[in-house]
Design a protein that fits this description.
- This protein is an all-alpha fold and 429 residues long.
- α4 packs antiparallel against α5 and α7 crosses α8.
- The longest helix is centred in the N-terminal third of the chain and has 33 residues.
- The N terminus and C terminus are likely disordered.
Length: 429
Amino acid sequence: MGKGGRASVLMTEAIQTSSKDSYWMSPYNPLDPKAPELPSKGEIKAVIPKECFERSYLHSMYFVFRDTVMAAACVYAAYQTLSTDLPSDLLSFDALKWFAGWNLYAFWMGCILTGHWVLAHECGHGAFSPSQTFNDVWGFIMHQALLVPYFAWQYTHAKHHRRTNNTVDGESHVPNTRDEMGLDEKEERHSGYAVIHEAMGDGPFAMFQIFAHLVIGWPLYLMGLASTGRLGNDGKVLADGEIIDHYRPWSKMFPAKLRVKIAISTLGVFAAWAAIYHAVQEYGVFPVTLWYIGPLLWNQAWLVLYTWLQHNDPSVPQYGPDQWTWVKGALSTIDRPYGIFDFFHHKIGSTHVAHHLFHEMPFYKADVATAAIKAFLEPKGLYNFDPTPWYIAMWRVAKTCHYIDGLDGIQYQKSLEDVPLRKNGKKMD
């Protein structure tokens, strides 16, 4: 199955020749005999100013206040300028303004709410304040309002950090294997996504990838239907068809000691849905969709986009259990520029390497830490920063990161675009 052997050697050759194009490539190739020795976590931490790890109640709460004021301003502006009544003439200029206005509101409100989502994510990591009780209270409020089961996701996201780019025990955006994509050992298509890709074509399949990730990916992940790890909390491989979701306290996703917290998270989601139902009964489906569901969809798209792009690139390795170490996984993270969205999203995408190395560090110190980490790692060829605009990087990842050969060794993601098409069940020349 090419578990770290033949497949890895072939990928080494591919990496060495792909520099002819204009795409960014990770400077670190663990298959290169001259690959630098990786530093320890302690050695990296030693170059970061100690004040970067100082957490402040007031500083963190300021950002909660700031983001909430922006959200309130966005709601006020929409309330003053837009109507929830559908225009009578859908082909009129007024209808065009109505449609554009509500989409503009949904996009920017979703963008602002992603700031709250990031702050709740900081709470889950313990980076929001020195008190984990304080963190959990505010994290629970902000995440549950966005239909995120706070304690459940807190646990799985911590696992994502503990097992980054681990092909077996990783969590979220764990790459599919060749077999799971519907390819045989000779890389001939026989089922699944391999056949779907052939039927759709390269561009449409990439668009499908973007839709699947950004529109339906988050709820599918929470329900245990996509992108989860391959192991239960007991360390055993999940059976075919076995689902590990974020809602059942007895889900194999979680150890038994967390069942009460998982139940609280699930009840919180039920309470949020009950509030939505009450709003629908009071105001109708359409107004609730315009005011809440539209921004929520954009919020979910942003959070999936960040996790997807910060850990996936055809030049960044995935590690089987025989090769994986915590430092290897953390240094496989990629920093990317997000322009104006860094302001709204607290630079979660442009300082992600620092975040994965030291998740307990507050985000408002991550800029300083990133500069120190870059100065230390970049001369060694160990710092990943892709300057490609995020929307172009998204398209490239959607076209090139489809599967790995196997679960062992050092693996690089491959593209179905490089697999020959079949005709009438036979491989085309």
